[in-house]
């Protein structure tokens, strides 16, 4: 997924708030499937997705394959969409038949509100075996036992490092611990005589590209929610450990100097990406960055590795999220919509072709093992992180991504020095999240 929850955090939050109003308008449940298994689907299906440019072409190709296999189905594709537009359309009774979301964070809202149809009857009727998907993937496509989404492709986060910069500094290996990352960040940073940053060894600011509490939480093993859905952030000392580490590095650079440096960096998704331009030596990013590097920055020698950790026993694990896809409760042709969704998420050849085209991680065991899957040494690092039993994701919640947004707002204030009391700030985050959960319940 090239458009991630980090890039569209504001949109994700808006979507989370809108769904309770828009999609919650007399949601109801779509009827159970009426066709028998094996009946050829027919009719028109409207499919919305968020991809653009090179990645949208990969979607068009796979939709063409589907239509060749199911000639009685006509698929109308609308790219460049987002969750807010989709929720508003569903609320108005005009939503797509099939919607693809860039964020797993919407699953709790989509499932609890009925914006997306419960897929259990279709899965049971057609014998779809969910054991083909890793447990972490199954966890982010259902909410409280209701599976309203299926996994499309997965995103796995790791560490990118510039081999040329490492070599010039006599560094032979990427950091495996947060302490090592701190040391390398300082060693590889270049400043002008007045302290202005010319190159950051590692830019620690939350809000920079893919730097977010969610993506870094596995480095310390921090927990988001308790079993009852309320916040665990304030009571989990791992969050204080992570944020104290990050703040120490921000203070070493100087917050104002970091902000000035960051203001001059290129767009994350453009050719002027800071890592691609050598302005940042080490960066947190997803597996898709490899395709961007090879397309936009062919001369940059890069390496990839798992995220650094505090506990060596956790090294190799990381954060995984992905794209999720569902059938709208307003679908005009639910059987044909399900056929498209099933093809995109269960057909091994289709999943492998999508992975090779977009360069995201396939989500089924047979696609991961396929001889047709293009796997180089760098991509294998992300496959290994994906397969690591310690790899985690952000849990689905009835408030969508709002619990992450509450923490995100606080860490912005904390890293800038506006909020100085870490423990009190996290306790307030707990209170705000729990109020949202109570209101949503």
Topology, number of strands? 9
Percent of residues in helices comes to: 40-55%
CATH topology of the largest domain: D-Maltodextrin-Binding Protein, domain 2
The CATH class of the largest domain is Alpha Beta
Strand content: 5-15%
Task: Give the helix tally.
Answer: 18
Low-confidence runs (pLDDT<50, min 5 residues)? 1-28
Please state the CA-atom Rg, rounded to the nearest Å.
Answer: 22 Å
Q: What class do helices, strands and sheet pairing give?
A: alpha/beta
> Major sheet, described briefly?
9 strands, mixed
Précis, in short:
With 441 residues, the protein is of the alpha/beta class. It contains 18 helices and nine strands.
Task: Describe it.
With 441 residues, this protein is an alpha/beta fold. Helix content is 42%, strand content 13%. The protein folds into two domains: 9-155 and 322-387, 3-Layer(aba) Sandwich (D-Maltodextrin-Binding Protein, domain 2), CATH 3.40.190.10; 156-314, 3-Layer(aba) Sandwich (D-Maltodextrin-Binding Protein, domain 2). Strands 1, 2, 3, 4, 5, 6, 7, 8 and 9 form a nine-stranded mixed β-sheet that branches. The two termini are 31 Å apart.
List keywords for this structure.
nine-stranded mixed β-sheet; globular; 441 residues; 9 strands; D-Maltodextrin-Binding Protein, domain 2; alpha/beta; 18 helices; disordered N terminus
